[in-house]
Structures are given as C-alpha cells and as structure tokens.
C-alpha cells in the first residue's frame, strides 16, 4: 500500500505514518490538497494529513477542502505529541549558543517563543515551509551559524545534533492527523475508541437551528467530543459546523439523529467513522 | 480622541477608522496586541483591530488576546467590504502586463488567486506584512517591474495607478473590525443593530454542556448571530466559545440567561455590548 503524506521527509505527518503504518510505502507531497488528490487519482491508496493542533486549532486547508470537495472517507485518526528540539550542524555543535539565525515552520517558532526569547534574543528568526525543510537547509550549510527547530526524526534524517531538547513552551501540545482511503486500512496500533466526524450546514436564517441539532444528540446521550465552526465563504456570519461523535456511525441512535437533523433542513456530510490511535 | 489602529496607513483597518470616526487622531501600530496595549496604557483612548473575515474566519490573534487578557470593552463593530485592486507605479503603468513580481498580504493574494493565476502565470508572488506595506514598497521602487494588490486608499496614499480594479475572486467578502475603549465612543454613522459578544468556557468533561448553554438562549428566543469555537490551549479537544447575541447585554432575558449559564458551571466573559456599523 502506498501512502501520500505532507512532506518533506521527517515532518510530524511522516512520524504519524511511520508510527501507525510501518509497512506502507511513503510518498511525500508538497501540499495538503496534493495528498488528497493523489488518492482520488489512484496514484496512492491512502493520504495522511494534519487536521487539528491543540494550540493553533483546526488546519483550515484540510477542513475547507473536506467540506468543499468529494473525498475518500476518514479511516483513522493519529494523535502525535509535538516535541520540538533545537538542533545545529555537527560542525557548529560546540558553538551552538552563538548561532545567528534560527529557522523553522511559523507554528514551531510560535510554539517555542519563550525559549527563543530567553536564549536567542539577538538571533534572527526566519520562517520556512516546514520543520523538516528547516532541518534540511541547516544540514546542507555546515558553514553557516544557523540552527533549526524541528522534531527528533528530522535530526536523525539530516544528521543534525540536538543541542537542546524539548524547547516548546506548552507541554501538552498534540497534533491530530487523519488517514483517508477508499479501502480498509491496516494499522499497527490498537484502538479502543471509535469515532465519527460529520459536517453540518444549517438552514439559512433560522434562529436556533444549531440548538435543534445539539438537542437531537443530547437527549439520546450521544457524546460529542468536538464542535467547531468554519466560515462557509458565502458571507460574514455564515458557518458550517464540524462535529466529532464518540460513537461508530452505524450506531442506531446516531443514524436516527442524523436522519432527523436532515429532516430539520440541515445538510449533513459524513467524513468517516474510524479508529483513534495515540502515538506514545 | 486618539485611536490606535493596525497600520501602516491605508490598511483596511485605516479605512474602518476613517469611515466611522473621521474626527479622531489616528495612530498606526504594527501589531494587534500593541494596539490593545496602547489603550490599556492610556496612550490612546480607542483601538480598532480586525476581528473576522468572511473568507478566512476569525482573526485568531485578536480572539485569543481578548480571551486571555483583560481588555477595554468593545464599543462598536465596523463592517467593511473588501475590494482589492491591482496597482503599479505610474512609471510602469503602460507596461503593467509585463510585471515580474506581485506583492501583497497573504490573505489578499489568496483572495485574488484566480486573477493572479489567469493574468500573471509567469510573475513571482511575494508575501508582505500588509496590503499597505506592499503598496508602499512599490511606490518607493519606480525602477522595478513590480505590482501590488491593495485597496483604493493605498493607491491614493502612495500615488500608485490602479490598472485593474476589483480583482478579488469573491464579490461578497467583508471584514469585521471592532473598536475598543474605556470611554463612550462617538460614531459618525448611525446604527440600527445593537449586539453583544460573550466568551463561554464550558465545565470540563460534562457532555451536553454546550447544549445547555444554547437551550438557555433558545427558549427565551434570544437570537445568536454567531457561535465559534477556539482551542483553549490546554489540550486537544478543549475549546472556548465566542457567541454574538443580537440584543443589548442589559436586556432582562439576556441577563437571566447569562446568570443561569454561570450557575451551570460555565465561565462567562462579556467582551462588550455595542452598535454595528456598515461601511458602504
């Protein structure tokens, strides 16, 4: 089985794939839409893309693409702890405190704001397209006094020296990735939680419609683990809602709730019913 | 009265201020937190910052700052239509179709994706910190074959020639700005709508709490014009909700609803009760 993932090699998405699907052939793509299109065009059988980060919120590109386009179903979610390390080229390892420039993805730089502010007040900060791209650049320029913030896999992949581990400000940061495929997927890990994700568009201009939707779940004691709004792109104040249900979609109570929500005039799109995997 | 706004001169925030508060002294600040801190430190009496865009969604920096910090109340919202134009230095106006590089804010570039894709396939696209900064840069480099995407005020301010007007893909795009102040504000425009904005944090691990909150509004027929989630930054799946109420906060029914929501174990933060202004 081939899996498209948001590359380059050694991104957090790559960690998600390697942890849960060790036997797939991994193929890096540059953007989230390209990963999803690769599955739709049958170039690969699975796509793994980031979906939500505990600090930054949803990955809008993924959410909007899933709402506006037809896609393969979500077959699994993979929750990866985000641990950022400060790394330099081995040639610079003794003088790492004198680095002049630090490169990484904008989110990683934001997540390590306190570390950067306290340890590297005079260094220049520069954004790159991914933590892995930053690590790669540093590895290719041993002559520069540059450092990268990236994960452990990137340090291994690009032969960099981690001179300070765990430089992220928040200890409980996680990112949630989703695996999408038209086929059943075969995960290495075991899961105890089955979830479903739906997107609901409310009828225009009816006050209280969201309350009705939540009522349909509440009186059935169906537990929702997430409710998030996104703009519909049709005008200020128009949203769709992404809802995570902690039950398989085949559950009779869930099926009846969805049918009633549609009967109330809402549009419902089921993104998938899947297992949740946690990477240790 | 002095007003801090997200600068430089001729941003869309500047348009919001000039349209509704023509008599204030405008002072440009570089970031949203600096605008809000200027009011708290009494350097100015009012701050005007972007809050939500119809295509991109909430401005997370503003929302998160209002949630996590103490702030002056919101006294007004200003809704500005977003119209983007393609402009060049007058020295390049005859050869505008040959521009080699196009600069603007990332959101403006995204909003004009179709135009750029069809008309300027071979030109390089470069991000700048604001549409106004892009216009300023082009105005200072008459020798470069560069163009900027920015608003009409920026073209006037920096003496650029609009060679193609209204190059944005979506016609109904608006941005919502908020004016915050410890004092009453004096708007030039008249408003027919009074709104209130609150932020609600649900009690941890109680299924159905959001349903209870919405029920408290629904049975009282209190109309909510917006409900949006944002991560609490305490772990995946923990959110607070921003809710817009189409009633003044003093309304008896609103007051009772808020008291009950607090009695249910929710934290409620009132951001303000204010007039809504529409810029034509």
TrEMBL record, chains A, B:
<dbReference type="InterPro" id="IPR008242">
    <property type="entry name" value="Chor_mutase/pphenate_deHydtase"/>
</dbReference>
<dbReference type="InterPro" id="IPR001086">
    <property type="entry name" value="Preph_deHydtase"/>
</dbReference>
<feature type="domain" description="ACT">
    <location>
        <begin position="198"/>
        <end position="275"/>
    </location>
</feature>
<dbReference type="GO" id="GO:0009094">
    <property type="term" value="P:L-phenylalanine biosynthetic process"/>
</dbReference>
<dbReference type="InterPro" id="IPR002912">
    <property type="entry name" value="ACT_dom"/>
</dbReference>
<keyword id="KW-0057">Aromatic amino acid biosynthesis</keyword>
<protein>
    <recommendedName>
        <fullName>Prephenate dehydratase</fullName>
        <ecNumber>4.2.1.51</ecNumber>
    </recommendedName>
</protein>
<feature type="domain" description="Prephenate dehydratase">
    <location>
        <begin position="2"/>
        <end position="182"/>
    </location>
</feature>
<dbReference type="InterPro" id="IPR045865">
    <property type="entry name" value="ACT-like_dom_sf"/>
</dbReference>
<dbReference type="Pfam" id="PF01842">
    <property type="entry name" value="ACT"/>
</dbReference>
<feature type="site" description="Essential for prephenate dehydratase activity">
    <location>
        <position position="175"/>
    </location>
</feature>
<keyword id="KW-0584">Phenylalanine biosynthesis</keyword>
<keyword id="KW-0028">Amino-acid biosynthesis</keyword>
<comment type="pathway">
    <text>Amino-acid biosynthesis; L-phenylalanine biosynthesis; phenylpyruvate from prephenate: step 1/1.</text>
</comment>
<dbReference type="Pfam" id="PF00800">
    <property type="entry name" value="PDT"/>
</dbReference>
<dbReference type="InterPro" id="IPR018528">
    <property type="entry name" value="Preph_deHydtase_CS"/>
</dbReference>
<dbReference type="GO" id="GO:0004664">
    <property type="term" value="F:prephenate dehydratase activity"/>
</dbReference>
<keyword id="KW-0456">Lyase</keyword>
<dbReference type="GO" id="GO:0005737">
    <property type="term" value="C:cytoplasm"/>
</dbReference>
